[in-house]
Amino acid sequence: MIEIKDLTKRYGSFTAVDSLTMDIAKGTVFGFVGPNGAGKSTTMSILATLLAPTSGSAKVGGFEVTEHPGDVRRLIGYMPDFFGVYDNFKTTEYLDFYGASYGLSRAERKKIIPQLLELVNLSDKAEFYVDSLSRGMKQRLCLARCLVHEPELLILDEPASGMDPRARIEMREILKELKLMGKTIIISSHILPELAEMVDEIGVIEQGRLIAKGRVSDIQQGMRANRVLHIRLLEREDEALAMLAEEPYVSMSYLDEQGIHLHFGGTDADQAALLGRLIGHGYRVVSYSEAQTNLEDVFMEITKGAKLS
User: Fold this and answer.
1) Burial code of 142-153, b = ≥16 C-beta within 10 A, e = fewer?
2) Model pTM?
3) What is the CATH number of domain 221-298?
4) At the fourth CATH level, which superfamily is domain 2-213?
5) From residue 208, how far is each of 1, 6, 7, 190 by CA, in Å?
6) Among residues 163, 157, 173, which one has the least CA distance to residue 137?
């Protein structure tokens, strides 16, 4: 669905996007992760035909964004991180305006607007003026506007920004529904645990460069050389800690009220062998587990030391 090759955007001496290359398959929900200023919004704006790249290419649905912007715009629904709404419109009038802008007939607009309001849980606000809606409701209305022409690709830049916890949950459920509908979605977010529940793949961008891309589970698996083991013993924990500190795959170990914690660099077989040695030395193991990495752990680990010249 998306093909990006050597995409670069410069503003004078500043490089916002630096030789970015990646593909996103049709039907994928892709999470774009990176700190502020990393190049996420710039890349999304180029895909939405709002910015021209300095060099390189980007294609959406086979159409090059600079050569066929009209074809690209028919395929996409774009929700920027800051969006405008027309406060003096009612919600139905707002969607009707955009439907007409996309060339939908009056009959088509009359049919699709109630469906969109139901999708984003705003059916009871159909006759409310936009300026009376909460921020979360306005963001859901903006999402409905992105869908009015039934696009194949959604580009959502920080769609949950500024929302309260309840509004974020509502947005997350809507995005899950869109995923089930087969939409291709690019979504950037700093709310990483919630993003992990929705996406098929993530791409981590730092200073304009893509430094990791793949399924969350695959990237987590690749990080397992830095796994952390939690061990609880019935007794003799200080003695066991001294023994474990001498193990070849243990880089750091410490003891607290929750038990023994090890930074372990071995394989699954090495981990199993370590448990066997503990038991063989007469230690009574109450629990032996590996800490699960979440998307925040992934992000912090792979961006560590990623300052690029």
Assistant:
1) bbbbbbbbebbb
2) 0.73
3) 3.30.70.100
4) P-loop containing nucleotide triphosphate hydrolases (3.40.50.300)
5) 22, 11, 10, 17
6) 163
Reported as a single tens digit per residue, the pLDDT across 114-124 is: 999 999 999 99
For 23, the token pair is 């593909």
Largest separation between any pair of C-alpha atoms in the chain:
79
How wide is the angle at C-alpha 235 spanned by C-alphas 230 and 236, nearest 5°? Answer: 90
177 touches 119 (CB < 8 A): yes
The two three-digit tokens of residue 110, written as one number:
């009359």
Nearest Cα residue to 290 out of 223, 231, 219, 217: 231
Domain ranges of the chain: 2-213, 221-298
pLDDT tens per residue, range 213-228: 888 767 666 555 567 8
- What are the backbone angles phi and psi of residue 12, rounded to the nearest 5°? 65, -125
Hey, what amino acid is at 61?
G
- Element holding 22 (H helix, E strand): strand 14-24
Radius of gyration of the chain from its Cα atoms, rounded to whole angstroms: 24
